[in-house]
Amino acid sequence: MNIFHLIWRELKFRRGGFVLGMLAIAVATATFVAAEVILQSDQILTRQLLDEQQASFESSIAQRRQDVEKAGKALEDATRKQMLKLGFNLLILPESQDLDELHLNGTLSAVMPESYVEQLAESSIVTVNHLLPAVTKRIVWPEKDIEVVLHGTRGEVPIMHRAMKKPLLDAVAPGQMVVGHSIHSQLNLKVGDVVKLMGEEFTISQVHPQRGSADDVTVWIDLETAQKLLGMENLIHAILALECECAGDRLAVIREEIAGILPATQVIERYSQAVTRAEARTQAKEMAELALEREEQSAETLLTQLKEARATTEAQHESLTAVVVPTSYLAAASLVALLALMNTFQRQSEIGILRALGATSKQILGVFLGKAFLLGLTGGLLGSAAGLFIGWLLSDLGQTPGTFVKTFADDLGMVLLSGPATAILLAGLASWIAALVALRLDAAVILQKETT
Amino acid sequence: MSTSMQTNEDTEQTPEATETALVDVSRLSKLYTGQQEIKALDDVSLKLHAGEFVVIRGASGSGKTTLLLTIGTLLRPDSGTLRIAGKEPYNLSNDDRARFRADKIGFVFQQFHLVPYLSVLENIQAPALTNPHVSKDDAIRLMEQFGLSDRSNHLASQLSSGERQRCALARAMVTNPSLLLADEPTGNLDEVNAEIVMKSLADFAQRGGTVLLVTHDLRNSEFADRTLKMSNGRILMEETGHAESN
Known about the structure:
Chain A is α+β, with helices and mostly antiparallel strands. Chain A folds into two domains: 3-64 and 294-449, no CATH class; 89-271, no CATH class.
């Protein structure tokens, strides 16, 4: 005979009360465990959905980024080729040059030392290529009596820190002349003809096809000869250059760099078809990048929306469980406390005789709390099993119990442990008052009540 | 069996008597307070010796059950001292007193106080919860002795009153206590069963145990070595030997 035997026999004898209490605890535990399962399933599901969505977005964006990058490279390459084909598009002019003169008359009057071009070539400049010093002046060809633009050039000056590039334009050799299409047409000049310009004799080496620009009325000769004819020894009007394929505000970058090397100059861009095309292509690339950026933003927005939607669902479930779980525990605790109190009063005679037999306070407490422990344990196990099942039914996690358990494996132990543990605690606390009442019952009063 | 005589008026004891007394009650008082103050014990002194069967008679409310529970270490007196086997149980802690009770004292009540969900054998064994010396063999022996063997697995509710009281008596004796306290043990029994119970108590006393029985039934005095009369919380007189009904 021991306390556990006593508890067991009493449970069997008054099984109705025990079953009722156990069911109350089972319901509360099931609510708790189901709530835990649903809340944790929510979190797992959220993680899964976000991970899946993130992976999908990342894959899609990576693909698009790759496409854009590829397209960008192709565009840059195309632009570079176009630029190379279409010629110089930058003019480095003396700072004092009035640009209105250039725009209105197509001529330049301010000069700068020819040494500037060497200075530039020997620098570590990166924003321009293909330096071409030039003099250019609108003159009347005295021997032919027509107005032409005389252009003297000596050929490209290589930039020292770079590998040699194939020149865009071949130098005009001394004693030779290249003429524009309009001059060629008006004077009926052809390659091999010998002409005189300002007393100097030149052989026509090349005739340009029609370009529809000032080039059509331009004659090109050797720079040194041109300087001599125009009385501009060692001076030049401009340095022509080809800009780099820089992204963004190219001109500002170029200006900044050149200003650092040749402070007394200004840089203008000749608005050419090449520039337009380059800009269009750059814009296309920018558009593609913008589209990519928008897609990234859109993905981010969608992810945020998904997160918010999941957070709302989780918050709703949390709010619900925050009410339902405590309520069910409170109801179960109240019922168990009531049943325990009824049980105590029902067992007064037994308590009296146990006291008379020499039971200590610990033993009396043991009788009642031991029963509460069994009540909590059985109710907790039953409730945990039911809670898991209900949780599985109500959560969207796992189509079969197997996949559910697999998905939930990490948290299952904690849930299965916390359910019965909480139930035992609940039963113990709810029975505590009854146990204390039993402890405080005066055996003498009980035994006297029925005998005197 | 000892036949010492004592009343409230004569509480002086010889040193020899004090030495041999199993229970030494000295000037116990107990006052119940409430709507009405009741002096349940009023300066009661009493000695019970080993092997003595003492009956205390009195009407309801005379204080006899209070005296029995006080001697049974279940009801602390307001004043006075109680010694059992040389110890003052009310000077012990609650748990030590409980263990002392489990070891030294057996109880039998009019209402039996059997544990309803235990079988006859389990009820007789119940003191094993508090007394490690109680064995199943002892319980079986007593069950046989009280003619309950064929009821071994029956619950209390399935027994007759006589069987219940015999079961309660067996439970009280299974620890082989020094002192057996019985409160109206025959109150709910027919004559046959009452006699069985009284004879059992007398046998217990003859084997060296001390029995204190409180009752209002004059017939119980037939088995007593001493019969004391109690009224208004005081022991009024002592009748040595078998008392007669009045």
